[in-house]
Design brief:
Its EC number is 6.1.1.15. This protein is of the alpha+beta class. 27% of the residues lie in helices and 29% in strands. The chain has three domains: 252 residues, 2-Layer Sandwich (BirA Bifunctional Protein, domain 2), CATH 3.30.930.10; 139 residues, YbaK/aminoacyl-tRNA synthetase-associated domain (YbaK protein, Alpha-Beta Complex), CATH 3.90.960.10; 97 residues, Rossmann fold (3-Layer(aba) Sandwich), CATH 3.40.50. The strands form eight sheets. Strands 3, 7, 8, 9, 10, 11, 12, 21 and 24 form a nine-stranded mixed β-sheet that branches. The structure holds the ligand O=C(C[C@@H]1CCCCN1)Cn1cnc2cc(Cl)c(F)cc2c1=O and magnesium ion. Magnesium ion binds next to strand 21. The site of magnesium ion (MG) has 5 residues, from strand 21.
């Protein structure tokens, strides 16, 4: 490709609303252009990268035996009403009416569509199992789209769905997809972890794993063990620490609970300051509204409540902290002095609190707290469980030696065991060998294909721009004649350009009439891994090869260039 004809511009500065490196560089290097918030055009260079990412996903899906199809983006609302999800989702689900005033949704995902399709096409166990996938644009009207392709409102997803006759079959399909994902992200050169995750809104009856690209700007926190391969999204991570840590106020258990005056002392910090105690000695009690029920959760003062664990324990659809006006309507609650004792609604007690021997807590009375609270003695521990976020440094729940370290991650893949959640609602059944009607067992598997570009750039860039792995680079070689006014250089560059093309190498030649500095800055921004410079050495038919990733330079005769380039294309990642 000749850069003088390429529909492409680089920007000296990145727009102010681009906050993360990958967003800034994609705009500055000319890979994408924003049409509207969260909605982007892939420019020719960006489209080439996206197509390579798609192709790697497609190859590994096909290798895993999945079959590609392509479903519509416009989905009849009836399907979503049948699955009960039409009302479950709010403004995030983009709804529209066609010219006959019939209701549609723009597909954010395709469980309903694929399940109704399979129901109509398959009715015998002999036709199962089958895994179907598509690579298709999804629509989710995010309230705050941000970070470029990382959280867009129109994005490219590979979504796959497996249909099995039984749970064992689902297990096989699930791990088949899991291993295909490992191959995909390895080929993409991404530093990733598969982590145990929460199934979130999709529900489902089995396990679920997320594939996380490690990156400081990632929205998710991962807890991973230093010794074994345990890794979990913080939403789900458990701790191995159940022993009562030292520094705990140990008191013999006949010291009665005692109320004491704490005027205007409402927060953990104020308690710590005024009583000169540690947050570990405090029982923090927070009131939630789960669906329409009031519940309180009590965790130790140095821990954070994990709302997803609470929601899952209660089996609630949604959960929200009771704000001050909600609290005002709840009897027995005194804002700022809420404690776990004698509340007129259930209290979920974290196991760490249950093991405390003497805690400080709100007295459920204005300006008063209690001390010497001994949960085993003073609380009816009907709901004891894991309701908190693990903290870094705690013991691994799976092995003896390891401890949990935190990382930030970008979710680039998510695999789910769905079970019969959708097949039941949409009647996806089959006749088993005895002719009995059974419900299909499903799994679903997503990869954020457009999000991969952001994750790769977050992990592969320097101050000057992107550093593409060869598997994704828009071109393999950037051929740069220093001056197109010098005939020797132009002639040699043309010769090498055709040689490279004849050898099937993807080459972009910067034949623009620009100063060398501009060419090098643009080349650094775009991030093509191999660069060939045709400069002064053109007299002796010598060219210079450098790698974008390392500034190592080697000069060699043009006849040796092809062989060297082929070596480099294969070697560097
Ligand atoms: O999409 C999934 C689960 C899997 C992920 C892998 C591929 C198949 N689907 C979860 N999810 C996320 N956001 C959504 C947003 C809207 Cl507006 C919606 F209506 C539905 C969903 C929704 O179901
Ligand atoms: Mg997730």
């Amino acid at each position: 490709m000749r850069q003088s004809t390429l529909f492409h511009n680089t920007l000296r500065e990145s727009p102010s609303d681009a906050e993360v490196v990958s967003h800034q560089l994609m705009l500055r290097a000319g890979f994408i252009r924003q049409l509207a918030a969260g909605i982007y055009t892939y420019m020719p260079l960006g489209r080439r990268v996206l197509r390579k990412a798609e192709q790697i996903v497609r190859e590994e899906m096909d290798r895993a035996g999945a079959q590609e199809l392509l479903m519509p983006a416009m989905q009849p609302a009836e399907l979503w009403k049948e699955s009960g999800r039409y009302s479950q989702y709010g403004p995030e689900l983009i709804r529209l009416r066609d010219r006959h005033d019939r209701e549609f949704a723009l597909g954010p995902t395709h469980e309903e569509v694929i399940t109704s399709l399979v129901t109509n096409e398959i009715n015998s166990y002999r036709r199962l199992p089958v895994t179907l996938y598509q690579i298709q644009t999804k629509f989710r009207d995010e309230r705050r789209p941000r970070f470029g392709l990382l959280r867009g409102r129109e994005f490219l997803m590979k979504d796959a769905y497996s249909f099995d006759t039984d749970w064992k079959g689902l297990d096989r399909s699930y791990w088949n997809m899991f291993h295909a994902y490992q191959r995909i992200f390895t080929r993409l050169g991404i530093n990733f972890r598969a982590v145990e995750a929460d199934a979130g809104t999709i529900g489902g009856e089995g396990g679920t794993h997320e594939f996380m690209a490690l990156a400081d700007i990632g929205e998710d926190t991962i807890a991973a063990c230093t010794c074994c391969d345990y890794a979990a999204n913080l939403e789900k991570a458990e701790s191995g620490t159940t022993d009562i840590p030292d520094g705990q106020m140990i008191s013999d258990d006949d010291t009665e609970v005692e109320k004491f005056y704490t005027p205007e002392i409402k927060t953990i910090e104020q308690l710590v300051q005024s009583l000169q105690i540690s947050p570990m000695d405090i029982i923090k009690t927070v009131v939630f509204i789960a669906d329409d029920k009031v519940v309180a959760v009590a965790v130790r003062g140095d821990h954070e409540i994990n709302e997803i664990k609470v929601k899952n324990y209660l089996g609630a659809q949604d959960i929200v902290i009771a704000d001050s006006e909600a609290l005002a309507k709840i009897s027995g609650v005194t804002v700022g002095f809420i404690g776990p004792m004698d509340l007129p609604f259930p209290v979920l007690v974290d196991h760490t609190v249950a093991h405390m021997t003497s805690g400080i807590a709100g007295a459920n009375e204005l300006n008063h707290h209690v001390r010497n609270l001994y949960p085993i003695r003073d609380l009816e521990l009907t709901h004891v469980g894991d309701f908190r976020n693990v903290t870094e440094g705690e013991k691994c729940p799976r092995c003896e030696e390891g401890i949990l370290k935190f990382n930030r991650g970008i979710e680039i893949g998510h695999v789910f065991k769905l079970g019969t959640k959708y097949s039941e609602q949409l009647g996806a059944t089959f006749l088993d060998p005895s002719g009995k009607e059974q419900t299909m067992i499903m799994g679903c598997y997503g990869i954020g294909v457009s999000r991969i570009l952001s994750a790769v750039i977050e992990q592969n860039h320097d101050d000057n721009g992107v550093i593409w792995p060869t598997t994704l680079a828009p071109f393999q070689v950037h051929l740069i004649p220093i001056s197109i006014k010098d005939d020797k250089q132009t002639e040699l560059a043309q010769k090498l350009y055709h040689l490279l093309l004849e050898n099937g190498i993807e080459v972009l030649m910067d034949d623009r009439d620009e100063r060398p500095g501009v060419k090098f800055k643009d080349s650094d921004l775009i991030g093509i891994p191999i660069r060939i410079i045709v400069g002064k050495g053109a007299e002796q038919e010598h060219v210079e090869i450098t790698l974008r990733k390392h500034n190592v330079k080697e000069s060699l005769h043009v006849d040796d260039a092809i062989a060297r380039i082929n070596e480099l294309v294969k070697s560097i990642h």
